């Protein structure tokens, strides 16, 4: 089944595989099976992707969302501020994650070996269990150049200036903004990619305003972005203007913020649902807390978070 997931190239193949994965997870993921029972959905009644129920992402905080018989090879956790509970994503097969992020990177940027990746991800490096750090560390090794920099901006900029290869500066948003304000370095042959937001270190700001500040400081035409989370094994990428695309085994669409079971037509703003078929051994059908717009061609925008953090329907399993 894994090989079939990563060979998807058409909408028909995606839909057939999504239904196959749904049947597998409805049987083998106890949390998902119980959720389907509580919302009175018989797995045998689902014959269209549009009708597959999305599991509220909060259940990764309170339950073991897992579809494998073996012990997990890793547990990825989400970032959490003081007093918050982290999500826990049990990963049965790390090679599946590695294949997902490597093939996803190739789709948007080509072979990793053609690049140097410089990671400016302090809040992720300072905790354990980050799926982002695992991904970037693996990609850096595939590149053969680059590295992680906690807060040594002088060394980061010196190493980048001496590097003849095309470069990706991948940073958590607040750290990139800090670098921009303190140094305003004019970067050469460099893609600047932001991810992760402000993490409570700074006040959130509209993406167009943020990207304008970063472009002016770094001397680049556009800011790229990465969309991922601990609960997913695939990523979406934006090569500018905040418009994301996803690999063929991942689909993003929206739901009504007041009715979690009502999918919206393309181009309507709503809460974000994600189908990530790389989540084969957890749950591939996730109702996130993000808000945005999904377009008919499969691209999407992320515009923020739900104002009410609790997605309706979650209390069916949270006691």
Describe what you observe in this structure.
The chain has helices at residues 2-6, 11-28, 30-38, 59-62, 94-109, 122-125, 131-143, 153-162, 173-183, 207-218; strands at residues 55-56, 74-77, 88-91, 116-120, 146-148, 167-172, 190-195, 224-227, 236-238, 244-245, 250-255, 269-276, 285-294, 300-305. Helices cover 32% and strands 22% of the residues. α2 (11-28) crosses α3. The strands form 3 sheets. It has a 7-stranded mixed β-sheet with strand order 5-4-6-7-8-9-10, sandwiched between helices. Strands 1, 11, 12, 13 and 14 form a 5-stranded mixed β-sheet that branches. It has 2 domains: 2-92 and 248-316, no CATH class; 96-231, Rossmann fold, CATH 3.40.50. Mean pLDDT is 94; it is low at 309-319.
The percent range for strand residues is 15-25%
> Average pLDDT value?
94
Helix share of residues?
25-40%
| Distance linking N and C termini | 35 Å
The rough form would be described as globular
Q: What's the domain count?
A: 2
Order of SSEs, N→C? HHHEHEEHEHHEHEHEHEEEEEEE
Widest sheet, order of strands: 5-4-6-7-8-9-10
SS class: alpha/beta
Radius of gyration: 19 Å
Would you count the extended β strands for me?
A: 14
Tally of contiguous helical segments = 10
Can you tell me the residue ranges where pLDDT is under 50 for at least 5 consecutive residues? 309-319
Q: Describe the sheet with the most strands.
A: 7 strands, mixed
Q: What's the quaternary structure here?
A: single chain
